[in-house]
Structures are given as C-alpha cells and as structure tokens.
From TrEMBL:
<dbReference type="GO" id="GO:0042026">
    <property type="term" value="P:protein refolding"/>
</dbReference>
<dbReference type="GO" id="GO:0005737">
    <property type="term" value="C:cytoplasm"/>
</dbReference>
<dbReference type="GO" id="GO:0051082">
    <property type="term" value="F:unfolded protein binding"/>
</dbReference>
<protein>
    <submittedName>
        <fullName>Hsp33-like chaperonin</fullName>
    </submittedName>
</protein>
<dbReference type="InterPro" id="IPR016153">
    <property type="entry name" value="Heat_shock_Hsp33_N"/>
</dbReference>
<dbReference type="Pfam" id="PF01430">
    <property type="entry name" value="HSP33"/>
</dbReference>
<dbReference type="InterPro" id="IPR016154">
    <property type="entry name" value="Heat_shock_Hsp33_C"/>
</dbReference>
<dbReference type="GO" id="GO:0044183">
    <property type="term" value="F:protein folding chaperone"/>
</dbReference>
<dbReference type="InterPro" id="IPR000397">
    <property type="entry name" value="Heat_shock_Hsp33"/>
</dbReference>
<dbReference type="InterPro" id="IPR023212">
    <property type="entry name" value="Hsp33_helix_hairpin_bin_dom_sf"/>
</dbReference>
Amino acid sequence: MALDLASYGVTPAGTDAVRPFSVEGLDVRGRAVALGPILNQILDRHDYPAPVARLLGEAIALTALLGTSLKFEGRFTLQTQTDGPVNMLVVDFSSPDAIRAYARFEPEAFAPGGAGEHGDAAALLGRGHLAMTIDQGKHMQRYQGLVELDGISLEEVARRYFARSEQIPTEVRLAVGRLFTRREGEAPSQQWTAGGILVQFLPEAPERMRQADLHPGDMPEGVEEHSIDEDDAWTEARSLTGTVRDDELTDPDIPVEELLFRLFHERGVRLYDAQPIADRCRCSREKIEGIFQSFSEEEKAEMVVDGKVVVTCEFCSAVYEFKAEAV
C-alpha cells in the first residue's frame, strides 16, 4: 500500500535526485537517491553489456550519494583499476549537480559463455583498488582514499572506506534494475533504474562511534579477532537499512521519501531539500586544445589521420575534429 506523502506535507523529489535526511532518535544522517533518465542517457551512449551496465549503475548511484555531500565547489571522483573483466570504472561528480561516467571492459569476457556474462559485481571487478578523490580546486590540496578490491561489492567498498578513512560507522545499500515495456506495434524496450541509501552514525559523543578493528586477513592462529559492543542505536539503524530490498530501491513507483518513512517513521525521520543531478560532461574543444600542448611535435604528428585529428570523449562520446595545422 502506497504511503500518502501529501498528508505529511512532503513532495517527492522524483528520479535523478538525492534526498538528504536525518533520524534524530537514532543519531544517524544519510542520503537516498533514485536514478532514471540520466542513468539511461549515460548507459545508452556506450551500449554496454547488461552486467557492465548494472555495475556502472551501482557506481553512479554510490557517487551521487557521496558527491552531493560536498559543501564546496569541487569534484568527487570514484575510479577502479582492477584485473577483472571490467578493469576500470570512472564516475566523476562536479558540484553542485553534474555527473558523468565511463566503464572499460574486456569484450570477449561478455561473449556467450564468457567469464563475465553472469558474474556478480565482485567477480566483474576482480582484484585491484578503488580510489575516491576529492578535489577542492587549484589552490587546495586534493584528498584521496584507497580501498583494496579483493572480491568485495561496491557496498562493502563504501563501508570499508568510511571505517578506515573517516572512522564513521556506515551502512550502504545499492541496487540497479531494468524495466521492460512494450507498446502496441513496437518492439520491447528496456529502461534502467537505480537506487541507493547511505546511513551514517554521527552521535554527539565520539566514543559511541567506536568500531571493531577490521580483520587483517593474516592473524596468527589462536589470536582473537578484535570486537566491541556496538551502540544499540546504530545496531537498530543498520538493521533497518539492511531490510531494504533491491526492488524497493529500483521501483519508480516507490519514492525515496516513502521508503525512508517506511524505515524510520517510528524514530522521527526528517527530510531536507532534494538535490537534483544532471548528466553533464566537462569536456570542451578548448580543454582538448589545451591538452594538445602537453604533447611533443612527434606525438602530435602521429595523431594526424587524413589531414586531421579526431578526438572522442570517453564519457559523453562527443567527437571533436581538428585540422592538422591547428594541432
């Protein structure tokens, strides 16, 4: 049964927006996102195999959740470098609302019977690392956090990142789905949807945020793993977030506001202004001309084909042509 949000004075943000929220009764803050049209715009440009599209969709949802938390004019970039069938993901968010994304993969892995055809996110990524970079501008120092990828999901990546880099207890749920539609006289079509929710425990007393040390993976035999008693409020918040199903996150008929009320209404959830997201690339002819200046004359000459240089943006697939003499 759908919740009547109007009775609570809430107008749904709709798709392609992030909704910040807090639950004072549990000392948590978080963000929820629903993606639709911009996700399809990004994925349709490259005609990715379905497993690659699904994985990149998760990365876009995670980046939207993290990037919209920036309180300044800057950039947040999520990038993987791995040995898996999908050996690179790049999702770039520029505040306040622009996002772009790209995936590089081994095509043979997604041929019929290939290793990537039915792999989950952890298998597609393989082993390597994921970097999260915050760039505050020319005159500010960049911050980068690294997480080892050793057969874990993007949800687990986010948990480890905040546990190690920020020491903030964090729970994340991500999901990507496909909706198949068919109009009379037309071939079936599909639309991608994605959703995510990030919840963080931020009590006033810092000692309540203490977490057990991460398992090092190579403890000597007989040594007990470090453990502490988890705060009851965080246990409840984490457990409630864990009940969210994939189909709830990806169903366009379930607004994120309704989902948040379902989870936390008994504890008093408070919603803040939604933050729209736009599919917008940062490439331009002027920027590419600037990049040419970093190449030697020999390297520039090698780029020329039939009297011109053609550059295609990997993110938005925009094509830029330059005459050889201009380069």
